[in-house]
Structures are given as structure tokens and as C-alpha cells.
Write a structure and sequence with these properties.
Blueprint: H1 13-23, H2 36-53, E1 60-64, H3 70-77, E2 81-86, H4 89-101, E3 107-110, E4 125-131, H5 140-150, E5 151-162, H6 166-179, H7 196-203, E6 208-218, E7 224-227, E8 233-240
Helix pairs in contact: 2-3
Length: 242
């Protein structure tokens, strides 16, 4: 990417991605820019979920907040029947083009996490993924209720999000957005970050029981790894028990 990243503070969440893609149309799949880390992280999260769910082959999968399709494409390559949803039409346009170029059949639809129930899905999903999205939704409880509504009993929810901690603020907002400028200013809203205990508590009323959480560490060279410390970013999965 050339030039400074656009400031996104004060924009509604979907508009942040619209502004970013408008500024840099190749931002989702570029080998430079703010989403390079997502590609580095994708291998870790796919491996984690593959182990947690016993693979993806033949399973009906929903990727919420799919953006440009980074996770959706990885799941489709491993045999999942993938539907990706996102409120940003510009991001979905990128995802559709890239999937076609990659020879992958992925059903991309424009909707938000809160309005999944109105999307007309013919069947419930075996797996639902909400990675790097729960900290961006306007109504977390409505989103979790909607996820439960489209997830089959016995199905799994895979999630990745950020904890509301001083360490997370310093690393993900202060350093990345205002010191290093590797992410756009205003991209994250600290008030929307969710502690592991809060997420566990808020999933339970919707019949989803957390089975595991692991932290995600980052070395100086950008290498990611699973760790026990969930203070900053954490990944995990929940089982829909009813």
C-alpha cells in the first residue's frame, strides 16, 4: 500500500471496511498493509479449528464477518461447503472475485451478525466461525443469539477475539494504530473488546458452552503461536448443547 492508512474513528463498523477497501482495493489479499497479519494468523487458526472440529470436509460452514474471504477460502480448500457473510459490500466484491480466480465455490451474502436469522438459510450449519468479528458487532448478545439460531444442535462455534485489558489496549490500539501505524487509527473500539469470562457467560444463555480457550502470542518477527495467556488475543470453541 502506498500513502497513509485512512483514519476510521467515528465511522460505523461496516463503513470502516468500506473506507479501507475504497482506499486500497487490494487490502485483503495484498502482501503489504494492515491485513498481512491475518494471513500469518490464518494458518494458526485453521490448524487449531481443524483439530478442534475433526476437519472440515463435507461440513456446512458459516463464516461471519468473512471480509475478503481469507478464512472462507482456506475452509473451502479443505472440503467445507462454505457460506460467507459480511455487511461490507466492497469486501464481498473482493471476496467473490478472488474465489472465482481461485476456482472455489463460496456463497457470499451481505448481512450482519445480528441479522443472520433473516438471511434465509435453508439448513442449519455444522460449524459457525466468528473470527476477528465479535469485537466489531453493534449488539453482541443479538449476534450470539443469531449464531445459535443458525447453528445445528451439536454443532461448533469457532471464535477469535480480543480481551478488554490494558495489555490489549497498549498492543492493539496504542502501538499498532497510533505508534507503528500498521493499522488504521480508529479501527478498534476498546469498549467492544470482550474478556474470556464475559464471552463464556454471554454464550451460555444461548445453549453454547465453551470447551477451550487459548491465547495467541506474537514474536518480534511477527510469528504467531498458541499460548496459555489469554490477556490480549484469544481463540477457542464452543459446543451448541441444545
Amino acid at each position: 500500500m502506498s500513502g497513509p492508512l485512512p483514519a476510521l474513528g467515528g465511522l460505523p463498523e461496516p463503513a470502516k471496511y468500506e473506507r479501507l477497501v475504497e482506499r486500497a482495493p487490494d487490502v485483503w489479499w495484498s502482501d503489504a498493509g494492515p491485513f498481512v497479519g491475518l494471513h500469518q494468523l490464518n494458518a494458526i487458526r485453521v490448524a487449531y479449528f481443524r483439530h478442534a472440529f475433526g476437519g472440515f470436509g463435507g461440513k456446512r460452514v458459516l463464516d461471519i464477518g468473512c471480509g475478503g474471504g481469507i478464512l472462507s477460502e482456506a475452509l473451502a480448500r479443505e472440503g467445507a461447503v462454505v457460506t460467507g457473510v459480511d455487511p461490507s459490500e466492497k469486501s464481498l466484491a473482493v471476496a467473490r472475485v478472488h474465489a472465482a480466480q481461485s476456482g472455489l465455490a463460496i456463497d457470499y451474502r451481505r448481512t450482519s451478525g445480528e441479522t443472520l436469522g433473516a438471511s434465509g438459510f435453508a439448513q442449519r450449519f455444522d460449524l459457525v466461525f466468528a473470527v476477528d468479528v465479535l469485537e466489531h458487532v453493534d449488539d453482541l448478545d443479538a449476534t450470539l443469539a443469531a449464531i445459535a439460531g443458525v447453528l445445528a444442535p451439536g454443532g461448533g462455534l469457532g471464535f477469535l477475539t480480543h480481551s478488554r485489558s490494558v495489555a490489549a489496549f497498549l498492543q492493539l490500539i496504542w502501538d499498532e494504530e497510533y505508534v507503528q501505524h500498521t493499522m488504521p487509527e480508529g479501527f478498534h473500539d476498546f469498549a467492544r473488546f470482550i474478556t474470556p469470562a464475559e464471552l463464556t457467560e454471554r454464550l451460555a444463555p444461548h445453549g453454547m458452552v465453551v470447551q477451550e480457550m487459548k491465547g495467541l502470542g506474537r514474536a518480534a518477527d511477527g510469528t504467531r503461536s498458541l499460548i496459555d495467556d489469554t490477556t490480549v488475543t484469544y481463540i477457542g470453541w464452543a459446543l451448541r448443547t441444545r
